[in-house]
Write the structure tokens for this entry.
Amino acid sequence: MSKVKTPWPGRLLARLIVGADRDTLRGDLDESFRRRVAERGSSFGVRAAYVFDVMLSVLHVWLATIRQPGRSGLAEDLRYSRRMLTKHIGFTIISVISLSVGIGATTTVFSVLNAALLRDLPVRNPETLVSVEKPQPNQTSLYSISYPDYLDYKARATVFSEILAWAEVPAGIELGDQPEQSYGLLVSGNYFPVLVGRPALGRLITPDDDRISGAHPVTMLSYAFWQRRFGGDSSVVGKRIELNGLPFTVIGVAPHGFTSTYNVFAPAFYVPLTMQPQLTSRPDALTHRRSRGLKVTARLAPGVTREEAQAALSVIDGQIERENPEKGQSSKRPGTGIELRPIGEYPLDIQLALLGISALLMAVVGFVLIIACSNVAGMLLARATVRRREMAVRLALGATRGRLIRQLLTETLALFAIAATIGIALTFWLTRIVSSISLPAGIPFALEASIDWRVLAFTLLLAACTGIVFGLAPALEGARIDLQSAMKDIPMAGAFKRSRVRHAFVVVQIALSLVLLIGAGLLARAFQYAQTVYPGRDPETILVASVDPGTLGYGVTRARAFYQSLAERMSALPGVESFSMSRQLQIGFGYSTTSLIIKDRSSLGQQRIEFASVGPGYFRTVGMRVVMGREFTAHDREPAASVVLITESTARRYWPNESPLGRLVEWGDQTAEIVGVVEDGPHRVVGETPPPFVYGNFLQSQSNNVDVVVLLRYRGDQATMVAALRREVKALDPRMPVQAAATLSSAVSTMMMPWRLGGQVAAGFGLLGLTLAALGIYGLIVYTVNQRTREIGVRVALGAEPGNIRRLFIGHGLRLAAWGVGIGLVISFAMTRALGAFLFGVSASDPLTYVGQSVVLVLVALAASYIPARRATLTDPLIALRHE
Amino acid sequence: MPRTLGEFEQLVLLALLDVDPKEAYGVPLRESIERRTSRRVTMGALYTALDRLQVRGLVSSKLGAPTAERGGRPKRFYRLEPAGSAALADSIRVLRDMSQGLLHRLDLGGRGR
């Protein structure tokens, strides 16, 4: 019967049992298990019941110890802890620094996520607000309700006390000599009165500002925009600004902290919803039931639940649909009903994307924290050895083992508590930095990280959990003392096991540092490579700027005429070598694909080919060589005589040893002639064969999208050139905004900012991890050398060469490094898959990065173990032998 | 009596009446409670209760010799002290007096739950 082994998880847990009756309790637990096995056999249920029993017993015993103040004296423990922490001040400082950085970083990431995902919206009674959604078949759009629908809901639905509508609107903001492209929010008149109390300045938009279509050119600014563009100047009220070319009067500023009904969506301004037709150049925006551009938010009437409101509104919606059958549409649009969701809840796909990014961020800072914790745990273990005599004395004086464990754990927790406090202070500082990261203008996205009770609770929980998890092993080891050998100060039998735990901590540090360094390396390589992913040559002498006539309601014909005139005016200026335009900036990911049929290769069927739409003179402007034929000219304008260019590798692929000139391709219902072959653009993945690529002529494009990037190659001063461009654009249409004017090279770096930032953050954390890991290795080897001083003395006395001794310890350090690197590589391989989507130009398993960073780590490990190893060889055998 | 007995403490003291005094250690005590009440009892809970009762002088204990069956771990045998008997009797008396004539209003069902 005694042969039956108890399940190991239970055995492991049972070691946590403390108190005077530790042994009898464990004996009873084991005996119960064996009896049960004898009665019913060793089924899973019996084993699980044992583990459960042990788990609950541990809890009971721990709770009982904590609850008895008379016998345990928590205050006494704390006093003692303070004495110990101040006595070993060096250890305390190093531990607190590394832990507080780990805790601070983790808390900062959490606070950003908290602000984006968890925090309540800063609006009145958010719990009674719901978003009203009308899911459309085959559509995931957020915007699904038309203005007439909204008015009908408002008139008929009694389940809501208020019902608001809003829509985002892209807009050019004309302000002084610095126009910018951004987003605003069109809001119904009751939006602000329902959601917020009072404005930061001036007055709110009210229902009176939202009565007659086109009659209320007033706007409220967002707090952030007011701060950024007006420096918080209170004389802004009454000023006029131009939005999409229309004059608006500023009537107020939204309250601080309020952005919209989504925490992360931060528009620059707010205007009454009835201004939508004017602002968007869509005259029927407010009258057409099929113009579903609105998002609706409602406040539930008192006593009405979300489910009741959803049912009631679905009925009303069904009535509205029957009363307003849409021609040819009604059958295709079955009443899918209405969905009400708690406010601030993101649609599923956005939620998943946010979760993915959050998980990645959390993993990075979590690694830093684990490294710091392992580091401290390693040091605590080492100290447990140093303090053996102290513990032995206390045991001899009548302290129980449980008491010692608790004492050690209290010390560790006190350490973590100090670190958590400093970590929170760090978080205050870090969140300010995060909030001040300026995203490229025009992205209506707010990273508002602040500290609230959730963040504090998280930090506390984090510190407590990590403190217990990483403090337990050292505490258990520290209290496991063989009185006799401890008092005599000879190493005891368990020492080997103890150092194994320490080794594990060092290996963890090395492995996780490597993961961070590899992540950082991959991002850095991607960033470095991305710097070269632009078309043509000499990007520093090419000026790019975006011009968006679409926001001013230009049609295709008018836009083309505009570009034609602009090209003529610009080309005539001194210093301008060449001027052209492109639908998108061809950098980074800026490619799209199209399907086309190659006329004399029609057996191949539809080909998916990468595609870009560019204007006349594009290749000359960016500096790409046309190797055969010609490029687009101003004369290629008739859609009937469409022309395209292809790249060299495309030509080789479809017409090896033949001239592609004059061949026809067909896409959509358009046929185009190949008039030229241009050199291949930059690779996006090193070593890849460039994919087939075709350039369409922007002036013959059938797309309705008329917004472009203009490019000009210039000589001379950049600022003069930017001013000239603005001047010429203004001369053609004074309302037209010119955005983001910069050289191609700086546009490339702006676009790559997230990679640079990500790489820098990962590199910073990686270096921190590396430093801690190096400290860990160093500390461990120093410790081993001290432990083995006597052995070294014997060896030296027996004639061992210094080199041999040194190799002994360096080998030890390197073995740990090898384990760490091995494990780190495995984790990296698994984890960098997640990075894959953010990398280009470099594969997620890029050998150079993996090998390079591993070598760095091994070198650091070598250095960290060399220093103490060298000291070991300097030992005088006489002193060493007297050591113990 | 400084403090009345808790329900679980009553069960533990009753279990001490139930088991053979020579076998009054953790395993049989728990089995007694589990068998009679059909409740699951955690060994740790039993120990903390016994510990409390011992501090109050209601039970006493002595350490037995280690046995191989228990992985070389000793047993701790418990004994009901006169003060314990008195406290238990008192506590049951109170319950009996209070429930007199009221039990028919409760559905006590069968044995335990």
